[in-house]
Amino acid sequence: MCKNYIFLWVVVSLLLLQLQTKAGSQNSVSEPSEDTNIIIHSEETVFTVESLKSGTTKYKVSITILNSNGNHRAKQYVHYDKLRKVQYIKGASYDRSGKKIKALKNKDITDVSAISDFSLYEDNRVKIADLTHTVYPYTVEFEYALTSENLLFYPIFNPQDEEHLKVEKASYEVQMPVGMRLRYLESNMPQPVKKTTTATHEVYTWQVQNLEPVETEPYGPELEELVPVVRTAPTDFEVEGYKGNMESWKSYGLWVEQLNKGRDVLPEATKQKLVEMTAKAKTPEEKVRIVYDYLQGKTRYVSIQLGIGGWQPFEANFVDSKGYGDCKALTNYTQAMLKTVGINSYHALIRAGGGVPDIKTDFPSSQFNHVVLCVPMASDTLWLECTSQTEAAGYSGSSTGGRHALLITPEGGKLVKTPDYAAVDNAQLRHIKVKLDEKGSGSASVTTRYTGMQQEARDNAIQNLEPEEQRKWLYQQVKIPAFEIEKYAFAQQKDRLPVVTEQLELSLRQCATISGKRMFVSPNLMSKWTYVPNQKEKRLTEVVRGMAFLDVDTVEFELPVGYTVEYLPQEVVHQSVFGEYKASVKVDGQRVIYMRSMQMGKGRFKPESYAQLITFLNNVIKFDSQQVVFVKNIP
């Protein structure tokens, strides 16, 4: 590997004199470090706003691909839809000596659907210009222009958007008509914006130079927190005749409320049915659950988003008759049904997805990709995921929990926080009974109760896998060296904090090691911790833990006749700022009982605490590996 990089350094240095485009421009390449896959020589983005509803983006870039890990940057993706049109895409590639390999032709550009995670059908498409080459290093240049009649979104300037990427020069320019105000948020920018004025436009310019590759650290912040980023957004905008203002969350919410207004009308027959269904409900929450169950049994998720339909829901009577809709439509439908039975609720815009960062709360703008329903209750708020036919009412989980949502009310938008989940909410509570024979094999009966985020994987397996696939999946999940699954079963409890109970009957092969008259058993049968990140001499960034959890194991070993305990590990209690670990072993007649608990919290910690995390996890691995020694009494 090192020889390959040394070869690349020599080759790339030649580009300082040799690499030249047909237009006569010189691509100078500084000597890359070993962690560099890609060099952006220059990147220019010019966004010209022409009115409240129209604008043009022009983009130009020159990139050298140093190895196969950078090949994805030899493809340029240009997204478009009903409201955005691609004017042109140009490009060319050059070899290590600066000789042109090829000019981009129409056959090198594919046009495909760009269906998002939350849509099954929409008008979003993408043109992909491909100049991939197989001999390294090589350089690609792309240029395109895109016109838009949807200025809900302005570009984001993020030139260093991945690891192992060096940026020599990049710029972003926004041209605003005089009298229209640009809003922007700068992060990690070495220099602030430069403002100039022409006769017709106010011009905002950002530039960066000589950005060395950045690599995220284990348990560290996302890359976006570490690199220069500029977010831009309008103050006033218009989409297909709907004018809005984005200066505050309140005003942005008023625009969404305008789109939703009057679309909650249900057929009289459906209203009467809902009233009858909920007539015997004793509490408002019981009414909500009845309506939610009805929604899940009647509808399915199908997204058809064309033009303004990307933000405006289908009318409730359409969903009622067709039985399908997207997240906006199904949320609107549920809201209309709850309104019929006297329950008030609100649309809530949210950025959904496991591990997805929260929105920038100090920068009102369109940062959302999903809609859920918020139902205020007397004692607590109930959140409903209206696109799911199986989700428990009130559960947000890893997809939408612990982040900000924008409530859409008649008075405008209001930021609120969705439910967060503590360690005791995300629990794995396991009880195992093991019967050992004299050869060290045996059988195990395992009952595990998973709650909160720890039940999500099991819930997914229950909903989406056939029984035989579930069995195969369980073989991948159970961390025992040698075993067979004799029987398994799942039981679910749907609630605000959902529960999955898993029952396993296992046949164990060589669960214990026999040496002479001694038997060695590792009492932590299924929950051994195995991962410790690399220790760094100097930690640069904060330590970030995104999920809290609690694991509790009780393992009972029934010894074969004639064996007694010779050695028991001492009780262990280990604490740190990151969590607490406890383990103990006791003897009760012919039974040996092992108890272990491990609890870790979530949050952000100072960089210097990283050493404590490494120590904590190393100790957990050491304690999890301890053994109990049994000896056979020979007459």
From TrEMBL:
Family annotation (InterPro entries): DUF3857, Transglutaminase-like
Name recorded for this polypeptide: DUF3857 domain-containing protein
Residue ranges of the TM segments: none
DUF3857 domain mapped to chain residues: 54-214
Keyword Signal: yes
Residues spanning the signal sequence: 1-23
One Pfam family it belongs to: Transglut_core
